[in-house]
């Protein structure tokens, strides 16, 4: 445990993709400037802190994953506090502030944070500071930045109160005197009565002491030449403002090149989520015609030599590398083209000012430089403001320097959102736009997040195809634009498409005597089981599936499984099954025409399809989208869900489909039950609670 007890606070983070950790690190770093010390731990390190005896204020930063679950690293913690035998005053001694991260595009926004917050309250813990809920959909920083700004005053006040309570007058005076040394704190104390009710949107009222350290040093550049702002060009008022830029994050990583040779670490060592399996791709099929807008591929993996197991409805993760051309380009810009295959040793910089600095867990201590850039860092990530701030120091051109300062400043917040965040600008795009920026390798390791494995829904049944696992995906394509001179493909889907190209066009590869491709394509995967998105345990219960586009994927697994069960158990009773499928064109992207076989053999009772881009000569235009089709079967939906206690599954695109389907279901429930919309929404919430209305959606 660290820290002088008069200034210490406990800082816990629960992270899935590294964002909550990065924010906790930011808090820890800023704490020093406020005379405070963060005792920071991952929430899973339960041997390093003890909330049962914790007297200092606790700050929790927690993200949300899946369909509203806390991150994997918080599972044990959540289970522990959800113990129903705990008394209501279990945490009565605890004062805490919580920052939840989420994405409002998903149904259960910030549910990880809300769950922990609610439970701590039930157990008697007190807020010393209002809960912040940050939305990745509009930009986490909109809430995170002002929340952190306001945290210091609240923390100091909480520490004072805590010590007063403990009757430690000597400590109180020490804290008071530390507060009085900084002029801005006097202002803070005058505001102290507002602490309990901090309103996050009131950003202007926050003091900007941490952000303003360079205010005088940065002078505005000459008025803009063009009238349009862009990534590299600003216009008034931003171009003429004095800027509040974030504090320069201390560097903390040192990279040493080594003369030695050896082996790179195994990919499995990069994964903390479970066992990885390297499996052959045995089949690749393009499901869409060449003229379809998106290209969908189905891949079949051979898992027969592994202990990998799954149920239809589960997802799994694919470990994918960055694009080799982009890696080469980065090496070139860093001036390290010749050194890509050299081994490097990554260490914490001696004497770094960063509190609690440690080598990021996703970076091996020893590997080649190319290995780090290829397998460990999400080089396509949208650079955070702290990264931009660090890049300012590596930029020689005065105009470029100023623009980078603007983009990370408070005054340039909307430019950051517009030209970086919403434009999906990545690090390489930035280096092209700001050619005098020459960062050092350690900055990339310090600021780029972990390259995440990508999740895919299983599209097969282990009963129907023993030893096989199939999945379906669209190749993600990002067209060229002003800030991205070349078009790009998604990291994982672009890589997979290239990898399996020989299987898609077998004539181009050498076939052995059995007609099989002689070179085996292998990928590394690991399981990501889904707790709820499974077939009903009772086969007599009816269910409806809604899966347009690649959202149909898990339902192919459901239907294969069901077909086998019907063949094996002729004496069982099976409920009716419905599938609503939609795509753009009947003859270009109708992914699984063999659905008709399921219909023919009775596995599928009702198949309803729609085509959003096909023109129709019918007098009454047919419905375009699955949500429109569902409305046509309102009585059946209500019967299956309410009378027969059936299940309703939705899979696929969150933004454009899943919300539309939920709206349609609410309308149907309201109409069929003659209830108002609010009542219908409550029924839908109840169905979700009972795990009979289930979603597996992604954006
Ligand atoms: P990435 O390189 O990660 O690019 C996609 C990201 O780029 C987007 O998330 C977005 O942030 C960003 N972006 C968006 N537009 C642009 C733009 N114009 N320019 C630049 N960047 C942009 N997908 C399937 O196809 N099939 C499935 O069965 C499936 N199942 C899933 C199950 C789960 C539980 C989850 C969480 C996701 C699932 N996905 C599925 C999504 C999948 O994991 C990947 O996100 C998807 O395949 C894209 O990966 P990628 O690496 O190719 O794209």
From TrEMBL:
<dbReference type="InterPro" id="IPR008254">
    <property type="entry name" value="Flavodoxin/NO_synth"/>
</dbReference>
<protein>
    <recommendedName>
        <fullName>Methionine synthase reductase</fullName>
        <ecNumber>1.16.1.8</ecNumber>
    </recommendedName>
</protein>
<dbReference type="InterPro" id="IPR001709">
    <property type="entry name" value="Flavoprot_Pyr_Nucl_cyt_Rdtase"/>
</dbReference>
<keyword id="KW-0597">Phosphoprotein</keyword>
<feature type="domain" description="Flavodoxin-like">
    <location>
        <begin position="9"/>
        <end position="152"/>
    </location>
</feature>
<dbReference type="InterPro" id="IPR001094">
    <property type="entry name" value="Flavdoxin-like"/>
</dbReference>
<dbReference type="InterPro" id="IPR029039">
    <property type="entry name" value="Flavoprotein-like_sf"/>
</dbReference>
<dbReference type="Pfam" id="PF00258">
    <property type="entry name" value="Flavodoxin_1"/>
</dbReference>
<feature type="domain" description="FAD-binding FR-type">
    <location>
        <begin position="274"/>
        <end position="536"/>
    </location>
</feature>
<dbReference type="InterPro" id="IPR039261">
    <property type="entry name" value="FNR_nucleotide-bd"/>
</dbReference>
<comment type="subunit">
    <text>Forms a multiprotein complex with MMACHC, MMADHC and MTR.</text>
</comment>
<dbReference type="GO" id="GO:0010181">
    <property type="term" value="F:FMN binding"/>
</dbReference>
<dbReference type="InterPro" id="IPR003097">
    <property type="entry name" value="CysJ-like_FAD-binding"/>
</dbReference>
<keyword id="KW-0486">Methionine biosynthesis</keyword>
<dbReference type="InterPro" id="IPR017938">
    <property type="entry name" value="Riboflavin_synthase-like_b-brl"/>
</dbReference>
<keyword id="KW-0285">Flavoprotein</keyword>
<dbReference type="InterPro" id="IPR001433">
    <property type="entry name" value="OxRdtase_FAD/NAD-bd"/>
</dbReference>
<dbReference type="GO" id="GO:0009235">
    <property type="term" value="P:cobalamin metabolic process"/>
</dbReference>
<dbReference type="GO" id="GO:0050660">
    <property type="term" value="F:flavin adenine dinucleotide binding"/>
</dbReference>
<dbReference type="GO" id="GO:0005829">
    <property type="term" value="C:cytosol"/>
</dbReference>
<dbReference type="GO" id="GO:0030586">
    <property type="term" value="F:[methionine synthase] reductase (NADPH) activity"/>
</dbReference>
<keyword id="KW-0274">FAD</keyword>
<keyword id="KW-0963">Cytoplasm</keyword>
<keyword id="KW-0028">Amino-acid biosynthesis</keyword>
<dbReference type="InterPro" id="IPR023173">
    <property type="entry name" value="NADPH_Cyt_P450_Rdtase_alpha"/>
</dbReference>
<keyword id="KW-0521">NADP</keyword>
<keyword id="KW-0949">S-adenosyl-L-methionine</keyword>
<keyword id="KW-0288">FMN</keyword>
<keyword id="KW-0560">Oxidoreductase</keyword>
<dbReference type="Pfam" id="PF00667">
    <property type="entry name" value="FAD_binding_1"/>
</dbReference>
<dbReference type="InterPro" id="IPR017927">
    <property type="entry name" value="FAD-bd_FR_type"/>
</dbReference>
<dbReference type="GO" id="GO:0050667">
    <property type="term" value="P:homocysteine metabolic process"/>
</dbReference>
<dbReference type="GO" id="GO:0046655">
    <property type="term" value="P:folic acid metabolic process"/>
</dbReference>
<dbReference type="GO" id="GO:0009086">
    <property type="term" value="P:methionine biosynthetic process"/>
</dbReference>
<dbReference type="Pfam" id="PF00175">
    <property type="entry name" value="NAD_binding_1"/>
</dbReference>
């Amino acid at each position: 445990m660290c820290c002088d007890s008069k200034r210490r606070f406990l800082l816990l983070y629960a992270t899935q993709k590294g964002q909550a950790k990065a924010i906790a690190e930011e808090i820890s770093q800023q704490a020093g400037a406020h005379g405070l010390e963060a005792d920071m731990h991952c929430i899973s390190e339960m041997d390093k802190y003890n909330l049962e005896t914790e007297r200092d204020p606790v700050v929790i930063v927690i993200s949300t994953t899946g369909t509203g679950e806390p991150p994997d690293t918080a599972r044990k913690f959540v289970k522990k506090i959800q113990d129903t035998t705990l008394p209501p005053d279990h945490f009565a001694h605890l004062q805490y502030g919580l920052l939840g991260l989420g994405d409002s595009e998903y149904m259960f926004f910030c549910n990880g944070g809300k769950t922990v917050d609610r439970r701590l309250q039930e157990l008697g813990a007190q807020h010393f500071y209002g809960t912040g809920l940050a939305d990745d959909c509009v930009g986490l920083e909109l809430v995170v930045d002002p929340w952190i700004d306001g945290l210091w005053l609240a923390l100091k006040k909480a520490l004072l109160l805590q010590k007063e309570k403990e009757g430690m007058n000597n400590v109180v005076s020490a804290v008071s005197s530390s507060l009085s040394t900084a002029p801005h704190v006097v202002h803070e104390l005058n505001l102290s009565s507002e602490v309990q009710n901090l309103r996050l949107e009131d950003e202007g009222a926050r003091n900007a002491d941490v952000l303003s350290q360079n205010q005088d040093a940065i002078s505005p550049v000459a008025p803009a030449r063009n009238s349009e702002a862009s990534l590299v060009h600003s216009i008034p008022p931003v171009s003429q403002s004095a800027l509040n830029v974030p504090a320069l994050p201390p560097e903390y990583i040192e990279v040493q090149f080594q003369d030695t040779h050896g082996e790179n670490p195994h990919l499995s060592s990069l994964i903390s989520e479970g066992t990885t399996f390297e499996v052959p791709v045995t089949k690749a099929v393009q499901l869409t015609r060449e003229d379809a807008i998106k290209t969908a591929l189905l891949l079949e993996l051979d898992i027969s030599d592994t202990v990998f197991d799954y149920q239809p409805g589960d997802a799994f993760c694919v470990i994918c590398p960055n694009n080799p051309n982009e890696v080469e380009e980065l090496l070139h810009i860093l001036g390290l083209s010749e050194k890509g295959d050299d081994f490097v040793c990554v260490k914490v910089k001696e004497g770094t000012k960063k509190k609690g600095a440690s080598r990021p867990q996703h970076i091996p201590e020893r590997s080649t430089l190319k290995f780090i850039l290829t397998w460990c860092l999400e080089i396509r990530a949208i650079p955070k403001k702290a990264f931009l701030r660090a890049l300012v120091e590596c930029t020689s051109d005065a105009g470029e320097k100023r623009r980078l300062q603007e983009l990370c400043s408070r005054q340039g917040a909307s430019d950051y959102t517009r030209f970086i965040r919403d434009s999906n600008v990545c690090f390489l795009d930035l280096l092209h736009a700001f050619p005098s920026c020459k960062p050092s390798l350690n900055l990339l390791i310090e600021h780029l997040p972990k390259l995440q494995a990508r999740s895919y829904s299983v599209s097969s049944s282990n009963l129907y195809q023993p030893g096989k696992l199939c999945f379906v995906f669209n190749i993600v394509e990002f067209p060229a634009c002003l800030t991205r001179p070349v078009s790009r493909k998604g990291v994982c889907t672009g890589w997979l498409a290239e990898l399996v190209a020989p299987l898609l066009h077998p004539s181009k590869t050498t076939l052995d005597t059995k007609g099989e491709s002689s070179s085996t394509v292998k990928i590394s995967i690991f399981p990501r089981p889904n707790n709820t998105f499974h077939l009903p345990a009772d086969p007599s219960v009816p269910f409806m599936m809604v899966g347009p586009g690649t959202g149909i994927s898990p339902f192919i697994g459901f239907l294969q499984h069901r077909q086998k069960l019907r063949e094996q158990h002729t004496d069982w009773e099976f409920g009716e099954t419905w599938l609503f499928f939609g795509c753009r064109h009947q003859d270009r992207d109708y992914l699984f025409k063999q659905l008709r076989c399921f219909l023919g053999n009775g596995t599928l009772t009702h198949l309803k399809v729609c085509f959003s881009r096909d023109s129709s000569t019918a007098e009454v235009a047919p419905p375009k989208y699955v949500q429109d089709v569902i409305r046509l079967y309102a009585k059946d939906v209500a019967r299956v869900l309410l009378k027969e206690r059936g299940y309703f599954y939705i899979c696929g695109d969150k933004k454009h489909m899943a919300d539309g389907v939920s709206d349609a279901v609410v309308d149907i429930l309201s109409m069929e039950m003659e209830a108002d919309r609010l009542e219908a929404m409550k029924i839908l919430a109840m169905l979700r609670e009972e795990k009979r209305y289930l979603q597996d959606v992604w954006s």
